[in-house]
Specification:
By secondary structure, the chain is mainly alpha-helical. The protein folds into two domains: 110 residues, no CATH class; 182 residues, no CATH class. The protein has 14 helices and no strands. The longest helix has 43 residues. It is globular.
Length: 346
Amino acid sequence: MALIVLAVIAAGAAMNWAAAILTPLVLALFLTVLIDSFARFLQRRAPFIPEWADLPLALLISTIGFGVTVWVVVDNAAAFSTKLVSDAPRLNQALMQVSAIAGVTAPPTVGALINQINPARYFGDVAHALQSFAAGAVYVFIYTGFLIAARAGLRSKVDALWPVLEEREQAILVFSRIRDGVERYLWIQTVTGSLIALLSWALMAALGLQNATFWAFLIFIIVFVPVIGGLIAAVLPPLFALVQFPTLWESVALFCGLQAILFVVGSILLPRMQRDGLNIDPVVVLLSLAVWGAIWGIPGMFLSTPLTVTAIIILAQFPNARWIAVLLSGDGHPEAGSAARHPGPA
């Protein structure tokens, strides 16, 4: 057990040291599984499409979807920045109201806060972060292209690595469980994210918040990051409600409503679906978020659940490490496989 603990610590330190190399590759693997799952979905739902066209079509649709997402977020972010500058007097009034509630006698103005923060000193860090993100995205797409191209020789590699039929079947079974676990994670996150986004849109539209559709779209994207995404989704729309509405009750009502939606879906429904569908303990989801976030930052947070599901499946194959998989699993039977107990959508 001590050797296993030391090995885990050493592996985590090594992955942190090689984060710049490993994170694009792991993101590319995740994206490849996503595209492959989409291609197989097209095979089932659109049998009239030629078999050779399923994967290219899935790749094309995924690329277009990613491009549209980036364009919508960037375009609306620029519009919001312009609106914040033009609504500075309204922001000052909101600060005065909040300060009065908090008992502050000399409330600051927006200009004073900006001068105190001194955003100019962060421009270099922001530019470096954007440059790193762009470079990482390029690497991810390059890796994804090569991984998709390498699928053709995968079968022969598996035959060469496991020449014995029983061992090869066991290896294929493990790979299938990992793929099914990632697919089920995506399915669960998509269902719960869609539900949160739909309910949030209904609440924002009922209160009359501008750009409610965009906010719902943004909430759907950021809730893919466990816990942290929900916190951001509950804070951003109420902040912009302070700018739009002359009174505070709309912002307070929006904040409370979003918190209620996120609590019901994110804290009650989602953990139950993850436990039943992914066979992972809800506490482990939070722990994995902290661990993978410390190792790989935001990409680690985004991939924390599928990486942990993969680790559970792999650890269950080794007798000396099976006890770790049992502790991490939801029902104590990691080798059973969630797909066999809870079949996914057709």
